[in-house]
Design brief:
The protein has strands at 4-7, 10-12, 18-24, 33-39, 46-51, 57-59, 67-72, 77-82, 91-98, 107-109, 113-117. Strand 4 (33-39) and strand 5 (46-51) form a beta hairpin. It contains no helices and eleven strands. The strands form two sheets. Strands 2, 4, 5, 6, 9, 10 and 11 form a seven-stranded mixed sheet that branches. Strands 1-3-8-7 form a four-stranded antiparallel sheet, with no helix packed on it. The protein starts with a strand and ends with a strand. By secondary structure, the protein is mainly β.
């Protein structure tokens, strides 16, 4: 069983930055596709970014130019650097791990970390 634990959320002013972390248990981290998703109040959960084991990334249009996803396979840790945060970025951010070939059946979610952007 893979366990994912997010951290780094909090309250920031518009234009501020946050760095989210996701610590993953187990030794399978290095080959799994990792990602960040978010869910704002009253809205569906949406993709923010994903990153493969080799570092290829996919980014939502809303995050391009502001967010950076990265991973440290040696530390089993996923990161999301968020800059130029705006109120519309307010959401619970979830870490996701997906098996590269059996992702439909093998995937895991973290508990989420709250990000609030407000003046």
């Amino acid at each position: 069983q893979v366990q994912l634990v997010e951290s780094g959320g909090g309250l920031v002013q518009p234009g501020g930055s946050l760095r989210l972390s996701c610590a993953a248990s187990g030794s399978i981290f290095s080959i799994w596709i990792m990602g960040w998703y978010r869910q704002a109040p009253g809205k569906q959960r949406e993709l923010v970014a994903t990153i493969t084991s080799r570092g290829s990334t996919n980014m939502a249009d809303s995050a391009k130019g502001r967010f950076t996803i990265s991973r440290d396979n040696a530390k089993n840790t996923l990161y999301l650097q968020m800059n130029s945060l705006q109120p519309e970025d307010t959401a619970v951010y979830y870490c996701n791990a997906r098996h590269p070939t059996q992702g439909a059946a093998r995937y895991y979610w973290g508990q989420g970390t709250q990000v609030t952007v407000s003046s």
